[in-house]
Every structure is written in C-alpha cells, then in structure tokens.
Amino acid sequence: MRKRICLIMFLAMLCVAYGYTSGVDDNSQDRKLTKKEKKQKAEEERRAYEEKIVADSINGVYIPRNIMECFLELDKLLEQDGIETVKSMENRDEVIVLHMGLGMWVRNNWGLWGGSRLQAYLRDRGLSHPDDMSHMIFQFYYDWLNGINEGWQKFDT
Fold first, then answer.
1. Distances in Å between the alpha carbon of 11 and those of 16, 24, 86?
2. Using one digit for the tens of pLDDT, what is the confidence trace for 81-96?
3. What is the DSSP string of 27-79?
4. How do residues 24-70 score in pLDDT, each as one tens digit?
5. Given phi > 0 = left and psi -120 to 50 = alpha, else beta, which region is 23?
6. By CB neighbour count within 10 A (0-12 exposed, 13-18 middle, 19+ buried), where does 120 fall?
7. Share of the chain above pLDDT 70, in %
C-alpha cells in the first residue's frame, strides 16, 4: 500500500512538473494569461481556422470540397474489398460500424473537428457535429455505391 501511494504521488509530481494538469486548479495555463494574451491567442486561432477552411489540404491530406469528392477520395482510400463491404451492407444505417475506425480517420484527417473546407461545406448544409458529418458521408457513400443518388444530390445543392 505504501509503495502504491508513493507511486501515485510521484506520478502527480511528474504531471505538475510537465504541465499535465486537469485544467481546474488555480495554476492552469489559461488563468495565467493576461486579457491581452487571451485576445491575441483567440485571434491567432481564428486566423488559423480561416486558413484551414479554404485550404485544399491539411497536413498533406487532400480535403474534399463536397460530397461527391468525398466519394472519390473514399474510393482511393479503401481497397476493393472495403468498398464491396460498404456496398453489400443490408442498408445505409449499417455504416455505423465505420464510426470508430474509418470514421475517426475522416473526422481527424479531413478537418471535421478543427476546421476545413469540408467542415464548412457540411455546416452550410445543417450538420454541426463531426460525428454526424462523418456518418452522413458514409450513408451517402453507401447510397452512391448502390446507385441511389437522389438523397446525396439533393444534399449537395
């Protein structure tokens, strides 16, 4: 028991020493920033976001402009058996199985969390949460693979 307490205290000291805090204590970084520094940080974040939402790629990954480009990029990303797996699902709701794997990759790499032209495109069409965005992309991808075009074409206009 004594070794366990010592280990926990040691880990806590390391966390504090290297700045890994919960953000709720009085010494958190945001509380140390002055009003001017906070305003400057917010302005820098806004500028970075504005750059991302017009960029054609982020961190070397091409960002689709619209839903059709999502389909074309998914066709490039997936191997043929992956495409066939999506196409052969019983219905479009089964794409939920893609949420944690491919869905996470799409959300992280296509800028659905941090901002991208695809995120802006999807927000303009009423989607606000990245999980909903990736799910809608996959549902329409299923439709597209199966020749069901009315829904995604209406969404795209």
1. 9, 18, 45
2. 999 999 999 999 999 9
3. T-HHHHS-HHHHHHHHHHHHHHHHHHTT-SEETTEE--SSHHHHHHHHHHHS-
4. 455 555 567 888 899 999 999 999 999 999 999 999 999 999 999 99
5. left
6. middle
7. 80
Dihedral over Cα of 55, 41, 31, 29: its sign = positive
Instruction: Give which of 120, 118, 110, 129 is closest to 58, Cα–Cα.
Output: 110
pTM of the predicted protein model: 0.76
Say if residue 3's pLDDT is above 60.
Answer: no
- Contact yes or no for 53/108 (Cβ under 8 A): no
Instruction: Count Cβ atoms within 10 A of the Cβ of residue 89 and give its class: 0-12 exposed, 13-18 middle, 19 or more buried.
Output: middle
- How far apart, in Å, are the Cα atoms of 54 and each of 30, 38, 113, 148? 29, 25, 15, 30
Contact residues for 135 (Cβ-Cβ < 8 A; gap 6+): 95, 96, 99, 103
Q: How far apart are CA 112 and CA 130, in angstroms?
A: 5
Give the amino acid at 90.
E
- The residue type found at 42 is A
